[in-house]
Specification:
Layout lengths: L2 H16 L6 H11 L6 H12 L5 H22 L9 E2 L2 E2 L1 H5 L1 H22 L4 H15 L5 H6 L8 H23 L8 H21 L2 H4 L5 H5 L4 H24 L6 H12 L5 H7 L1
Antiparallel strand pairs: 1-2
Helix pairs in contact: 1-2, 1-4, 2-6, 3-4, 3-9, 3-14, 4-6, 4-7, 4-9, 6-7, 7-9, 9-10, 10-13, 13-14
């Protein structure tokens, strides 16, 4: 079965439980709006790809981890769009959660989704305590402080921002968690896979900086020019588009080289190249080159 089908089915099941008949209707609608329809689902797909590359393992544990990571990612977008941060009116080509439901419900929906992520792990891995412990640790580290997306968002409130730490936490943390969780779900050592996610996360951030500086809002489905408007670190501002493109290419190659020895290593190389080619819209990639 296509991994995308596993991911969407798992997310649908989780959201249906959280947004059930006893949930306040507006909160339930806000949670569903935040998760569906999804974006590229890069992080859960990376998690499942690593699990498959490692060979035979616990598919259910990998799907649970992938789902938890994607739910946390969606929650981070809800919070990122709030008036106190980016104040974004659109996300994925339609109104953001805060624009559709108001900031108060956006805060609550994001909070509920972060809790839901850990509930997914707890419910689905009850009979696998060793896997549960490893995956909760990996996902928790990626969500909180000092290394996770909460810390990454908090850097935006600092007067002096360490760009590397900011990007590593805000964007790289969930990519690194996805690669580690995929290995951990299969009982494989997770630490050797951390660099793969870290490199891919940094590459995605550079691509996002390029999209923010030179993209088309209608094509991207979200506001552009946000980094410049809010004075945030941005690879294009620091080095220009040609150098940013070169850095993106270097990071993708570093990600490929970092894949540990495993049964699916060559297939993993192909997958990284394919996915990385989609980091920038074709029209923007041509323009940027």
């Amino acid at each position: 079965m296509d991994p995308a089908v596993w991911i969407e089915g798992s997310l649908e099941f989780a959201v249906a439980e959280a947004a059930g008949p006893d949930c306040p209707p507006m909160l339930a609608a806000a949670i569903r709006h935040a998760v569906f329809p999804g974006g590229a689902r890069l992080r859960p797909r990376l998690c499942l790809a690593v699990a498959m590359a490692c060979g035979k393992g616990d598919r259910d544990a990998a799907i649970a981890a992938a789902s938890a990571i994607e739910i946390i990612h969606c929650a981070s977008l809800v919070h990122d769009d709030l008036p106190c941060f980016d104040n974004a009116e659109t996300r994925r080509g339609r109104p953001s959660v805060q624009a559709q439901f108001g900031p108060a419900l956006a805060v609550l929906a994001g909070d509920a989704m972060i809790v839901l992520a850990f509930e997914i792990l707890a419910r689905r891995l009850t009979t696998r305590p060793q896997a549960l412990g490893r995956l909760v640790t990996i996902v928790g580290r990626a969500a909180g402080a000092p290394y996770g997306i909460t810390a990454g968002q908090a850097f935006e409130s600092e007067t002096v921002i360490d760009t590397a730490l900011y990007h590593r936490a805000k964007t790289g943390a969930l990519f690194a968690a996805a690669s580690e969780a995929g290995a951990a779900a299969c009982g494989a050592p997770s630490t050797p896979w951390r660099n793969l996610g870290a490199y891919l996360g940094e590459a995605y951030q550079v691509a996002d900086d390029i999209r923010d500086a030179a993209g088309d809002e209608e094509e991207l489905g979200k506001p552009i020019g946000v980094d410049a408007k809010l004075g945030r670190p941005n690879a294009v501002r620091d080095m220009g588009i040609p150098e940013a493109i070169r850095k993106l290419d270097v990071l993708v190659e570093a990600a490929i080289d970092s894949v540990p020895l495993c049964p699916g290593r060559e297939r993993m190389h192909e997958l990284i190249r394919h996915e990385a080619s989609r980091f920038l819209p074709e029209k923007l990639a041509r323009r940027a080159a």
